[in-house]
Structures are given as C-alpha cells and as structure tokens.
Amino acid sequence: MHHFQYRNGTLHAEEIGVPELAEKYGTPLYVYSAATLRRHFQAFDSAFNGLKHMTCYSVKANSNLSVLRLLAEMGAGMDIVSGGELYRALKAGVPASKIVYSGVGKKAQEIREALEADILMFNVESMAELERINKVAKSMGKVARVGFRINPDVDPKTHPYISTGMKKNKFGLDIEHSLKAYQRAKEMDAVEPVGMDCHIGSQLTTIEPFLEALDKLIAFYNRLKDMGISISYLDLGGGLGITYNEEEPPHPAEFGKALSEKLQELPLTVIFEPGRVISGNAGIMVTEVVYTKKTPSRDFVIVDAAMNDLIRPSLYDSYHRIAEVQQNGRDELTVDVVGPICESGDFLARDREMPAVHEGELLAVFSAGAYGFTMSSNYNSRRRACELLVDGDTVTVARARESYEDLVRGE
Ligand code: LLP
C-alpha cells in the first residue's frame, strides 16, 4: 500500500495534488511519500518483533538525506557499501553502532573512515579484504568487528544482474573458504569475528530461496560452533521484492513468519538489509509529455525524463507502471514512452497500452523510490532531477534540481 492515490481523477501524493508540485518544482521530479516510508519500515521491522533483530536499511536504494533521516528517526540502522554512504548515514544521524558495511572493493581509506566512526561490523567478502582490514585496524590501534559474507550458491530466480548469491557471482566467499577465513580471523590481533552474512539477490518474489540460504547458513553456524568460534550476529541481507506490475511477492509479515520459525532457536541478533521493499513504492517520478510522434511503425510519447533519470527500464528491461497524472478517459493506444537522450535504449516503457496523451500533460512513473534517483547520472549534460518529500500536506525539497553551474562544478 502506498499514498499515491487518485482523487477526482487527479493523482495525489498524500494530501497534495501532483500537478501543483510539478507546477511549482518543474519536471522531471521525484516525489517521495513520508507516510509510505514509515509504513513500509514499520511493516518490515515489526515482522520480526519476536526476534532480537536490527533493520539496517540499504542506503543504495534511496540515499537522500531526508529519507535516511526519517528512517533513522524510526530507529533504522543502515547497510552501506562505500565511504560516501557512510558519510550520508552519519550525517542523517544514524548511530555508528547500527551501521554494517558490505561490498567487494572496500579501499583502505574507506575502512579507516568506518573504523574511525566505530561501525558495528564489516561484511568481509574476500581473504584479501580481511588482511587489509586487519592491517588498517592495527595501524589505528583498533580492533575491527567483522562477519564474512557467505555465498550459499542459491538461485534467487531474479534478473541475472541483481543475483548475487550464486557460485558464479563476484560476491562473498564459498562455504569452504569461509571456514578458513574465520580461522584466519581468529589468529589476527586487530580483527574480531562477530558475525556472518549473506545477500543472495534483489527483487525476490518468493520466500524459498531465502529459506534455502538460511538452512545453509545455520548448518555453517553449527560447524563454526564446533570449531570453537562463537558469533553474535547473523546478517541475512536484503532482497525482498515489490509489486511493479503483476508480481505477488510475500508480504513482510509472511516473510518474517517463515524466517522467524527457523531463527527462533539461534542465540543471535539477526540483521536485515532491506532497500527496495522500504522505498520502492514510496516514490514516483513525474514527467511531462514534450511531444507525441507517429512513425509508420510506432507511436512514441516523448517525455522530459530519460534513462539518465531512471535507468531501470533500459538496464534491466524493468517494468514501471506509467499513468496520467490527470486521468483523461481517452481511448488506449500502444506506445513507446521515450526520453530525449540520443540512444535507442532510452525508454521508460515499450509497447505500453495507455490512454492517449497530449503535449504538456503529466505522467507518473510508479515504483521509482528505489534505485531511481540513486542510479541517475548527468548523461547528455542533463541536470539531475529535483527530489521532494511529502508528509501529509507538507513538502520538503529533499534535493534541489541541479543547475547548469552544478553540471560543470569541478571541471
Ligand atoms: N544488501 C546488500 C549487500 C545488497 O547488495 C543489496 C542490494 C541490498 C542489501 C538491498 O537489496 P534490496 O532489498 O533493495 O533488494 N539496481 C538494481 C538493484 C541492485 C541491488 C544491489 N544490492 C535494481 O534497480 O533493481
């Protein structure tokens, strides 16, 4: 459920009409709903009420400071993957004791910054990284808390670009190497193994792959215990999917129930790193129709948002629902919704049936709150869009639209 609904044929973001927002702030425009973010965080977090757990929102999904601050106020921790995300999380007021750090390529400087902040734990993805963390921590006179990211070799049945827990992926350590890694970590003086971690992929729409991975992790945990290694945290990553079109992913409550049954017995604090399920349907992108164009083979709707603003359709062939901001009751047409960028891959939808639209009308691209703005770029020297956070009838400019000056800053 989200708070983007039609009232008398006009799309509203909570209490505010979207046309008003587009008029005042221009397009393309990202609009996030605070009530939806709160609701989604609450639904996810409370699904694990019976367990000792932490919900560490995955910053990469939507890293706007206003969004992070709102979640931090609700008690969220954060999952980060770079020095930049650490900077954002701290700036948003997230306590370092609730920050976990994943990623295959952490640089010494980033490790130093995370140790300086005293984050909860590094999710280590290779032996080389373990050595690096030990070295950096030692030079600072600190001890780094680590967990190893275990690659359980489970097929998450999602898009290949966002599958991460299969043998062929670059992520984590396979089970046998993980055992060696814990042994090695135990010998090191500037590293303390405190957890284990896995993240098998994103936009999963069934629970089975999660359960399969969890079974493997529990078996591994028991082997660790037998080796005399005791840990305190089990990080199960993110990945729960959302409805873009007709997917029917499990509700967080169902997800929580299924996992909790297996987790109940373990004397561990469980960490989750949800991204998309919190922010995905809490955001829309609003765009204006610049032209319509009929060619002998197709009808095009040319809009002022492009692949630089929302790359998911171009990159993963992802579906995003697109609808008129003011319902117009016209007959449906099959169209390609495309942007102004000089690439044939620049589209938001292809072969889409939707009511005919005219120049100057507004369209809303739904489910754009995760991996939307965060994956945007300046390609074709397009200024990155404005982001708004709506809370009831209050609007905050969460990020101002870039200026031409911003475009050349540093050049
Ligand atoms: N934890 C780790 C270690 C991750 O790599 C990710 C996502 C998450 C948590 C959060 O996953 P989520 O709950 O959002 O599924 N750009 C792609 C998605 C890439 C996901 C990368 N990792 C997309 O637009 O679909």
Automatic annotation (TrEMBL):
InterPro entries: Ala_racemase/Decarboxylase_C (IPR009006), DAP_deCOOHase_LysA (IPR002986), De-COase2_C (IPR022643), De-COase2_CS (IPR022657), De-COase2_N (IPR022644), Orn/DAP/Arg_de-COase (IPR000183), PLP-binding_barrel (IPR029066)
Active site residues per record: C342 (proton donor)
Keywords linked to the UniProt accession: Amino-acid biosynthesis, Decarboxylase, Lyase, Lysine biosynthesis, Pyridoxal phosphate
CDD domains: PLPDE_III_DapDC
Residue ranges constituting the Orn/DAP/Arg decarboxylase 2 N-terminal domain according to the UniProt record: 35-279
A Pfam entry, by short name: Orn_Arg_deC_N
Chemical reaction(s) catalysed: meso-2,6-diaminopimelate + H(+) = L-lysine + CO2
Coiled coil: none
Membership in a protein family: Belongs to the Orn/Lys/Arg decarboxylase class-II family. LysA subfamily.
HAMAP family linked to this entry: LysA (MF_02120)
Subunit structure: Homodimer.
NCBIfam families (UniProt xref): lysA (TIGR01048)
Protein name, per record: Diaminopimelate decarboxylase
Organism encoding this protein: Pseudodesulfovibrio senegalensis
